[in-house]
Each structure stands twice: as C-alpha cells, then as structure tokens.
Amino acid sequence: MTIEPTYLSRGVENRRSHLINKLKDMGYTQDRVGKRTSDMTLTELEQIFINVEYQYKEKIHP
Questions:
Q1: What angle is formed at CA 37 by the lines to CA 11 and CA 20, rounded to 5 degrees?
Q2: What stretches of the chain show up as alpha helix (H) in DSSP?
Q3: Measured distance CA(45)–CA(51) in Å, rounded
Q4: Distance separating alpha carbons of residues 7 and 44, to the nearest angstrom
Q5: Would you state the pLDDT for residue 59?
C-alpha cells in the first residue's frame, strides 16, 4: 500500500500557496531576517500564520 508522492506533494504545495496568499493579504511577505514566504517550508508558514493571524486579530479587535 503506497501513497503516490504526487498527491502528497500537490497537497503540500496547495496548502503552502494558500498560506502564502493569506499572509500576503495580512501584509506579511518576509520574516525579520529577510526570508520570503515563498522560500519557507509548510511548517514554517503554518507557525507564522498562527502568530500573524493572532497579531492581526488583536489589532482589529483590541
């Protein structure tokens, strides 16, 4: 029972693209040291999204 890597890869890339676009909408395109979101791993993007979303919501609804 083997999972085809293309399905998994496609899912990871779709999630990465989704997070990159959501972060861009919130004004986040790179980290403090200049690493662009398009160069980040899915794990990095998910953690950053959690943090940025929290900060974004705090600014809108203090």
A1: 50
A2: 5-25, 42-60
A3: 10
A4: 21
A5: 80
Q: In this structure, what DSSP letter does residue 40 have? A: S
Which pLDDT score is estimated for 6?
84
This prediction has a pTM of: 0.82
- pLDDT, one tens digit per residue, over 10-60 is 999 999 999 999 999 999 999 999 999 999 999 999 999 999 999 888 887
Nearest to 48 by CA among 16, 9, 8: 16
Selection from 42, 34, 47 nearest residue 18 by Cα: 42
Question: Tokens for 18?
Answer: 């989704």
